Amino acid sequence: MIVRASAAISLDGYINDLSSQRLILSSPEDWAEVKAARAACDAILVGAETIRQDDPALVTRQETLRAQRLAAGQAPDPIKVTLSRSGKLDPQARFFTEGAGEKIVFLSEEAPEKAVSALQKVATVFRMADTELTPSHILNRLENHGVRSLFIEGGTRVLTEFLSQDAVDYLRIAIAPFFVGEASAPRLVGEARFPFHKGRRMHLLRSGRAGDMAVLEYALRYDAEDYARLEEAIALAENCPCSETAYSVGALLITADGHRFTGYSRETAPNNHAEEEAILKAEQEGCSLEGATIYSSMEPCSTRKSKPLSCSALICRHRMRRVVFAAYEPIHFVHCCGERMLKEAGIDVAVIESLSSRALAVNRHILHPVGDDATEPNR
Ligand SMILES: NC(=O)c1ccc[n+]([C@@H]2O[C@H](COP(=O)([O-])OP(=O)(O)OC[C@H]3O[C@@H](n4cnc5c(N)ncnc54)[C@H](OP(=O)(O)O)[C@@H]3O)[C@@H](O)[C@H]2O)c1
């Protein structure tokens, strides 16, 4: 799943002021970008306090955006998701009453029954033990519910939780050109230990403007070196012997002590996958793969017709540390759950989706065959 977080802040880092009225930080241009980003996601998440204070509708009203969602095979409205331990949410809030999309509430098992049954009338309620109400469990639950992209919009506590627990792939910050200057107003994040600090900086993907606002976009799962290495893996896929029934994939493996091994599909045997080819070369040289990172142009497979172990299983067995890939395996052929399998094994997974179309281009003869139905690839 791709998780994006977004917030508009004042120049001094506040996301609201202390007045009873909602502070408008966004310019019209920023609003347009946020609405487009919302509409591109399967689900939008806000904390219960944001619903109580701001009563946001979070619906996609623009016909062009709704049409784009339909064309992409999505429902016209993204799913709306909120979190609450207390259950103090008004079923009449616009979050629940506006838009035809599903509403989901994550509630603590401790929440009062009266509140639970009122919310069950307007939303799908997931009740979880307090200890399970963590970003990783919440994301897992949403993933099992079919959510593949999530847009988190705040407020402070939710952003703090998801950012500090390393559960965000991309962060978009739009900075309004004014100060709030109220020390106890809500800030972008609260006190926590974040995975990014003076010793580990985030990767700035884009800096631009939206009207009078500066917009910054950060990648939290990868940096420029990862990007360059993944481009290398994608280029390797060009070498694959052509197949009508299996994808062309390239892989680059970097061991913990810096040795590099490359591979591409069918490089040394007709059924070999790219990751497997790179792993075989490392094994032949007697290199340990513990702690290694593998870059693959496509999500490592999770099932194999022709071999006992999938590439994801091989990666887990070798106790690699990280997997970086560009394209999810297209779901209309086999249902690949490599990403989930790797994450469940505690492996750090980064998806550089901006390279996805380049990774898939070499497979266009399978994905978009001319005038015929595709044969099912047997990756
Ligand atoms: N500028 C922006 O882009 C932007 C965007 C959104 C919001 N905001 C602002 O943010 C402020 C609200 O921020 P906030 O920090 O007070 O509240 P929040 O993050 O919106 O919501 C916090 C509440 O969410 C629930 N919650 C959070 N994590 C949970 C978890 N893991 N499990 C279960 N429930 C969980 C709890 O609800 P219960 O209390 O019900 O247990 C908690 O009190 C508002 O002023 C709003 O205007 C600004």
Characterise this structure.
With 379 residues, this protein is of the alpha/beta class. It has two domains: 2-219, Dihydrofolate Reductase, subunit A, CATH 3.40.430; 224-367, Cytidine Deaminase, domain 2 (3-Layer(aba) Sandwich). The protein is 28% helix and 22% strand. The protein contains 13 helices and 14 strands. Strands 5-4-3-2-6-1-7-9-8 form a nine-stranded mixed sheet. Helix 10 runs parallel beside helix 11. The chain is globular. Mean pLDDT is 93; it is low at 372-379. Bound molecules: NADP nicotinamide-adenine-dinucleotide phosphate. NADP nicotinamide-adenine-dinucleotide phosphate is lined by residues 7-8, 15-16, 25, 46-50, 53-54, 83-86, 88, 106, 133, 153-158, 161, 186.
CATH C-level category of the largest domain: Alpha Beta
Sheet with the most strands, sense and barrel status: 9 strands, mixed
Q: Classify the fold: give the CATH topology of the largest domain.
A: Dihydrofolate Reductase, subunit A
Domains counted in the coordinates: how many? 2
Architecture (CATH level 2) name of the largest domain: 3-Layer(aba) Sandwich
User: What is the residue-mean pLDDT, rounded to a whole number?
Assistant: 93
Flag low-confidence runs. Answer: 372-379
Going by CATH, the homologous superfamily of the largest domain would be Dihydrofolate Reductase, subunit A
Helix content: 25-40%
The value of Rg in angstroms is 22 Å
Number of strands: 14
% residues in beta strands: 15-25%
**Distance separating the two termini:** 21 Å
